[in-house]
Amino acid sequence: MYNRIYPIQDDIQEMSVFLFGARKTGKSTYLRSRFPQASYIDLLNSSLRSAYRNRPVTLYEQFAGKDAGTIVVIDEIQEVPELLNEVHRLISEFDIRFVLCGSSARKLKRKGYNTLGGRAYPCTFYPLVSAEIPDFDINRAVNQGMLPQHYLSPNPARLLSAYVDAYLQQEIKAEAIVRNLDAFERFLEVAALTDGEMVNYSNIASDCQINSTSVKQYFDILQDTLIGFMIPAYTKTVKRKLVQAPRFYYFDVGVANYLLHRKNLVRGTVEYGHAFEHLVIQELVAYLGYSHDRRRLSYWHTYAGNEVDAIIGDAELAIEIKSVETVQPKHLKGLKAFKEEHPDCKLMIVSLDPITRKSEDVDMINVYDFLRMLWNGELF
Prior knowledge:
Shape: globular
Distance between the termini: 30 Å
Number of helices: 16
Radius of gyration: 22 Å
C-alpha cells in the first residue's frame, strides 16, 4: 500500500470535507486507512443506496446525538445527493464531521443540491505522486501513468482499456450525461490529440463531426468528472500579444497515452517529450491542490511563438519542461523572453539533464531533484 500524503486529518479538525477524485485514484483505500474507526457508508452497496434514497432522514436518525467530532465517511455521495440535507443538519446541530467522497460533483452542481454552505472544505484526490512511491521511476511513470493499479502493472494497456470503458459506462452512459455515446467516445480520442496543447473548439468540432457547443459541453463533462483539467493562459500583458486559449490535460498521463495509442515511449522521441511534460504538470497540479496553495498555475504563449510551460502565481516562478538530457541555450528562449517582461520572476528549466546547476539567471534542475524539492516545499 502506498503512503498517500494528503493530510486530510488536518482538514477534518476544522470542518467536514468534500473529497472528489477520478475513479481508481485510491480514495476509498486511503479513507479506510486514515479513519479505521469511522462510520463508513458505501453508496455503491445497492441495498444501502436504496434505503437512504427512499428515506434520507435515516442518516439523521442514525447519527443524531453522537459526540461532537464524530467522523462519518460517505463514499460515492453523488449516488444519493439527497443525503446532503441531513448531513447539513447533523453538522449544524451536533458538529458531526463528514468526509463526503465521490468521483464526480457534476450531479450535485447541475441539480443544485445542498453543498453545505461552506461547512465542508472541497478537495481533489489525485493519482499517485512521486513522493508517495519508493524508488520512483520517471520512465515507468511517463509510460504507465500514476494510477495505483497501473504504475506497477506488467500490462497497463489492458487496465487502461478497462478504465476508459468503465468511465464511459459508469460515468457517462449510466448517468445519461450525453445523448450520443459514440460521438463522446470519438471526442475522448480527439481531445487526447490536444493534450498539453491549446484548445481550439472549432477544430475539435470538425474532427468529431459535432458542433462547437457540444465540444465545450464535453470538455465541461471531462472536468466535472475529474477526468481532465484546463490550465489557463497567463494573460498579464506587458508588450507582447498573448494567446488567451487554455491548455487541456487528461488527469493522468497514462490515460492520455492509451487514448493516443502511445506505447513503449523512449527518451529522445517527441512522444516521450509530450508525456514527460504532462507528468510534471500533473505533479504541479497535485502539489498545489494538496497544499491548499491558492496561487494559480498557468502557461505563457505569445503569438510570436515564445512560450513557457508553467507560470506559478503572478509571475513568481516560470518553469520550462524539456525531456532533453543536455540543456542547450535554445531551450531557454521562452524563459528569457518571459524575463524581459517580468524581470523579478525566478526562472527554471526541468529536464533529464543529470546535473542540477545554475546558469546565469536560470536554475537547471534534474527532474528527480525538481520533484524532491517540490514535495519538500522548497520551490515556492
